[in-house]
Task: inverse folding
């Protein structure tokens, strides 16, 4: 399993290709990429994180996902710092024998990263800066697991 | 001596990201009561604890969690990762 | 929306990158890749399809997915012919404003491709050749939708 | 005159992938009854219709579907795409 936390931009598809090439015996691979959504008014997105905690918190989520969904491998990349609209914020990749496990593990990882990994997003707009509120729907999504 | 960390709007409202606090608090709630008394900024940041999450030594905990043996306590809003 | 049905191998991550680059306003992108699973005994996999039907059938599934999950875009690549273990059989990519729609659309596409697109898999093993049986679990997966 | 197509193990069992059939069948079931009489291979391939799927003019249908106006009927096992 691999976890990258970094400020600099990354090529998600080069990393997905490396992840894919290293697989052995997998039948299914899922990737999720989160993109800074360009809604017309956003000039940039700042992502703050808690460095001492983000790595162990995400590693714990990944280990839980691996055990629960019998993953052959998993990868998470998450950026922090300043991002422009259209840039990839983060990517999750999962590999398993069958599609159901690969899909569920990716959704599980995303649901936990959204609400349990110590990251906070701040939007920069012409009108000012705004911390993104946590959504009730994201907290509710955890109940599925 | 405990290291107290603040993130996101708590950091901005309090005006600093980290402080060293001499405390006899045995729970997070007791520590919060002590922090509130530092100044109006602290008091404002902790005015509604429903909007605040806390981690002790990098583990998410409830406000009634113990501080015995704790070295680092972090306060922040609900997380918005992913 | 793009659909590629082809005999030759493809680079899924180059195509995913092109798909990603063309997105405008998306917040979430999901890919699924199906891989010829190397279980030790498989020497090759042959995929037969019904050329007159496979393209319109998959296009209909994609249009249904786009409408149902408000997709900004979708892409399907599916190979036929002879494949070796470890090769990518097919890829689905979906893009939406939010992660739930992108995930659900990819799962919906996969569930329908598995059981409603006219493809048949034949395994070549030392002991002989075997047509892959459709799984009850794949038929059951459609009930979710 | 209808074009009849066979795929996967139906094609292998019958020994051909396509044939032109002169028929007065008005439903798929009637066509299957006619095809069964061609030879033992056809009869064997259609011995258990629970294992057979059918498309008329590239659309999946049930065996009681009409053949009025149909040009191409395909028989095959349950699909295993993806």
Result:
């Amino acid at each position: 399993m691999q976890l990258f936390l970094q400020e600099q931009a990354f090529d998600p598809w080069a990393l997905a290709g490396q992840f894919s090439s290293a697989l052995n015996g997998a039948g299914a691979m899922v990737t999720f990429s989160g993109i800074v959504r360009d809604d017309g008014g956003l000039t940039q997105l700042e992502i703050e994180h808690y460095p001492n905690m983000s790595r162990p918190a995400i590693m714990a989520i990944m280990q839980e996902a691996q055990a629960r969904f019998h993953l052959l491998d998993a990868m998470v990349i998450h950026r922090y710092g300043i991002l422009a609209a259209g840039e990839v914020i983060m990517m999750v990749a999962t590999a398993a024998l069958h599609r159901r496990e690969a899909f569920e593990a990716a959704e599980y990882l995303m649901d936990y990263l959204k609400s349990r990994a110590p990251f906070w997003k701040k939007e920069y707009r012409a009108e000012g800066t705004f911390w993104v509120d946590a959504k009730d729907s994201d907290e509710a999504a955890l109940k599925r697991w | 001596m405990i290291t107290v960390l603040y993130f996101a709007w708590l950091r901005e409202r309090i005006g600093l990201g980290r402080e060293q606090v001499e405390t006899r608090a045995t729970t997070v709630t007791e520590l919060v009561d002590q922090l509130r008394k530092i100044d109006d900024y602290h008091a404002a940041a902790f005015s509604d604890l429903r909007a605040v999450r806390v981690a002790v030594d990098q583990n998410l905990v409830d406000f009634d969690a113990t501080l015995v043996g704790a070295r680092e306590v972090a306060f922040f809003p609900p997380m918005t990762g992913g």
Summary: The radius of gyration of chain B is 12 Å. The CA atoms of residues 33 and 46 of chain B lie 9 Å apart. The first strand of chain B starts at residue 2 and ends at 6.
